[in-house]
C-alpha cells in the first residue's frame, strides 16, 4: 500500500486501487505507512468491509508498523472485525486507555436502524461531552462544544436516514508541526447521494454540484426539505473550519478557513474513482 | 402552563442535556401533547429549556414545530413560548423555521421569554413591520387596533391584515378586539 493516509485528498490514491484490491488482493501490506488520520482510517475500514461483502473472506493486513498498529488498535479499528491481521501486536505494546483517550472518539459503528442508532448517537455525544475539553483543547468554549454536538448528531443521523447501510464515526485531535487539527469523520458504503436523490426533482449539473446543493440548501431526499447537512455546513463556516464530502465518484471541499471576500473556497471534483456511500471529514485547524 | 423540558426528558428516560434525533423529538411531542389536551382556551404553553444544551433540527421538527402547528389548529386556542433557550438551540430553531417558510411558504414563529441573539423576543421569519408590532406589543402588554395603526402609520386595512396574520400564527392573542402579548 502506498503511504497515502495523510488526508482525504491523499486517500484518493487508495480509492484508485480499490477495484484491484477487491478483485485481486488477499493481503494489504501497510509497511510503508507512516501516518494515518481519522478519515483515511474509516475509509480503509470501508474498503475492508467492501472486500468482505464482495469476497466473503477477510482481507489480511500485514506489515503494520508498530506505531500504526498501536494507534489502530487504540481506535478500535480491529473491533469492526472486517480484517484479519498477520502478526498481532504483543499485549504489552498496546496503548493503554490513558490521557491519549481524552483526545479521541474511537471508531463507533452507526447502525442503519433508527432505534439502535439513536442509542449509539446518544452514547457518542455523551463520550464527546466528557472528552470535549481535551478534543477541543485549542478551540474550547461551551459554544463550540454545543456546535459539535449538533454536527455529530446531524451527520450520524444521515447514515440511517439516507444511506440504507450502517456506517462509522471517529474523531481525533492531533498536531502536525505547529498546527493543531481536530477532525471528525463519518463514512458509510450505502446508496450515496446521487441515488438518494434520484426520485427528487432537483436540477444539478454534476454529482459534485448535487453534493454542494445538499450542503448549502435545505434539500432532502426523504422529506419536502431537510436541515442536517445544511446546518452542519453553516456551523463549519461559522467556526472557520473545512468540510470534505465524498460520494460515489465526486467530492466537494469547502475551505472556510481560507475564505476571503471574493476568493474561491468551494471546490468540486467529478470523475474520481468510484467509492460507494458517503464519507465526510470535518476539520478545524489552529 | 409551564413544562420543564429537562424534567420531562428525564421522566421519559431520555439522555440530557441534549435533545437530539427525531425519535427523541417524537417521544417528547407525544408526552407534551397529552398535557396540552387539558390546556385552557387562550392559555400560553411555556416550554422551559433550562439545562438543555443542544436541540437538533430533527428534534425541533418533531417536537417544537408540531406543537406550534397544533397551536394554530387547536380549539381552544393555545400559544407557545420558549424559555431559557441555548444559543445553539436558537440557531437550530431559526434554521428549521426559515426552511419551513422558504419551502412551504408557511410562517412558523415562536415568542421567547429571554432576549435572542438578534435583540428580539421571538424566533422565526417576521417582516420588519411584524417585528415592530410584536416588539411594541411586548413592551405595552396589550394594544388596540387604533394603537397599532397609530404606531405603524400604515392604513388600517393593512395593519388589520398584519394583526390577523400574527393572531393566526399565534404570536399575539386577540381577545374582543384587543391584542395581548403572549
Describe it for me?
The complex is a heterodimer of chains A (286) and B (182). Chain A has 286 residues and is an alpha+beta fold. Chain A has a domain at 1-96: Transcription Regulator spoIIAA. Chain A has helices at 12-16, 18-24, 38-55, 66-74, 114-135, 142-163, 192-196, 207-216, 228-238; strands at 27-29, 59-62, 83-85, 104-110, 167-176, 179-188, 242-248, 250-255, 266-269, 275-285. In chain A, helix 2 runs parallel beside helix 3, helix 5 (114-135) packs antiparallel against helix 6 and helix 6 packs antiparallel against helix 9 (228-238). Chain A is globular. The model of chain A has no long low-confidence stretch (mean pLDDT 90). Chain B contains eight helices and eight strands; from the N terminus they run βααβααβαββαβααββ. In chain B, the strands form two sheets. In chain B, strands 1-2-3-4-5 form a five-stranded mixed beta sheet. In chain B, strands 6-8-7 form a three-stranded antiparallel beta sheet. The model of chain B has no long low-confidence stretch (mean pLDDT 94).
Offer a concise description of the structure.
With 286 residues, chain A is of the alpha+beta class. Chain A has helices at 12-16, 18-24, 38-55, 66-74, 114-135, 142-163, 192-196, 207-216, 228-238; strands at residues 27-29, 59-62, 83-85, 104-110, 167-176, 179-188, 242-248, 250-255, 266-269, 275-285. In chain A, helix 2 (18-24) packs parallel to helix 3, helix 5 runs antiparallel to helix 6 and helix 6 runs antiparallel to helix 9 (228-238).
Using brief descriptors, characterize the structure shown.
heterodimer, A: alpha+beta, Transcription Regulator spoIIAA, 7-stranded antiparallel beta sheet, 3-stranded parallel beta sheet, B: alpha/beta, 2 domains, 5-stranded mixed beta sheet, 3-stranded antiparallel beta sheet
Amino acid at each position: 500500500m502506498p503511504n497515502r493516509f495523510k488526508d482525504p485528498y491523499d486517500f484518493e490514491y487508495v480509492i484508485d486501487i480499490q477495484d484491484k484490491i477487491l478483485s485481486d488482493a488477499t493481503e494489504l501490506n501497510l509497511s510503508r505507512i507512516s501516518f494515518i488520520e481519522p478519515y483515511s482510517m474509516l475509509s480503509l475500514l470501508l474498503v475492508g468491509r467492501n472486500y468482505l461483502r464482495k469476497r466473503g473472506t477477510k482481507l489480511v493486513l500485514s506489515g503494520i508498523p508498530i506505531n500504526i498498529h498501536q494507534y489502530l488498535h487504540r481506535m478500535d479499528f480491529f473491533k469492526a472485525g472486517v480484517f484479519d491481521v498477520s502478526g498481532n501486536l504483543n499485549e504489552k505494546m498496546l496503548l493503554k486507555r490513558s490521557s491519549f483517550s481524552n483526545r479521541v472518539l474511537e471508531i463507533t459503528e452507526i447502525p442503519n436502524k433508527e432505534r439502535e442508532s439513536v442509542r449509539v448517537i446518544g452514547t457518542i455525544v455523551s463520550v464527546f461531552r466528557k472528552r470535549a475539553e481535551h478534543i477541543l483543547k485549542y478551540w474550547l468554549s461551551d459554544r463550540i462544544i454545543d456546535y459539535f454536538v449538533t454536527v455529530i448528531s446531524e451527520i450520524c443521523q444521515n447514515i440511517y436516514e439516507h444511506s440504507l447501510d450502517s456506517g462509522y464515526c471517529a474523531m481525533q485531535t492531533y498536531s502536525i508541526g505547529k498546527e493543531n487539527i481536530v477532525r471528525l469523520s463519518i463514512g458509510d458504503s450505502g446508496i450515496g447521494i446521487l441515488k438518494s436523490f434520484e426520485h427528487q426533482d432537483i436540477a444539478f449539473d454534476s454529482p459534485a454540484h448535487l453534493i454542494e446543493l445538499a450542503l448549502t440548501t435545505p434539500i432532502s431526499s426523504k422529506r419536502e426539505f431537510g436541515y442536517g447537512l445544511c446546518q452542519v455546513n453553516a456551523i463549519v463556516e461559522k467556526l472557520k473550519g473545512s468540510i470534505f464530502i465524498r460520494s460515489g465518484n465526486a467530492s466537494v471541499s469547502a475551505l472556510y478557513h481560507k475564505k476571503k471576500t471574493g476568493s474561491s473556497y468551494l471546490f468540486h471534483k467529478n470523475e474520481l474513482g468510484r467509492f460507494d456511500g458517503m464519507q465526510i471529514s470535518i476539520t478545524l485547524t489552529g | 402552563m409551564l413544562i420543564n423540558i429537562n424534567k420531562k426528558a428525564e421522566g421519559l428516560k431520555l439522555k440530557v442535556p441534549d435533545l437530539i434525533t427525531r425519535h427523541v423529538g417524537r417521544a417528547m411531542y407525544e408526552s407534551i401533547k397529552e398535557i396540552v389536551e387539558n390546556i385552557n382556551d387562550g392559555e400560553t404553553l411555556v416550554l422551559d429549556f433550562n439545562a438543555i444544551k443542544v436541540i437538533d433540527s430533527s428534534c425541533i421538527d418533531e417536537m417544537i414545530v408540531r406543537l406550534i402547528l397544533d397551536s394554530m389548529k387547536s380549539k381552544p386556542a393555545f400559544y407557545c413560548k420558549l424559555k431559557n433557550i441555548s444559543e445553539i438551540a436558537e440557531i437550530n430553531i431559526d434554521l428549521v423555521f426559515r426552511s419551513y417558510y422558504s419551502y412551504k411558504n408557511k410562517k412558523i414563529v415562536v415568542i421567547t421569554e429571554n432576549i435572542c441573539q438578534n435583540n428580539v423576543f421571538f424566533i422565526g421569519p417576521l417582516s420588519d413591520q411584524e417585528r415592530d408590532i410584536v416588539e411594541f406589543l411586548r413592551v405595552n402588554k396589550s394594544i388596540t387596533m387604533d394603537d397599532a395603526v397609530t404606531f405603524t402609520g400604515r392604513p388600517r386595512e393593512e395593519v388589520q391584515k398584519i394583526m390577523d396574520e400574527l393572531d393566526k400564527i399565534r404570536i399575539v392573542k386577540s381577545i374582543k378586539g384587543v391584542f395581548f402579548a403572549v
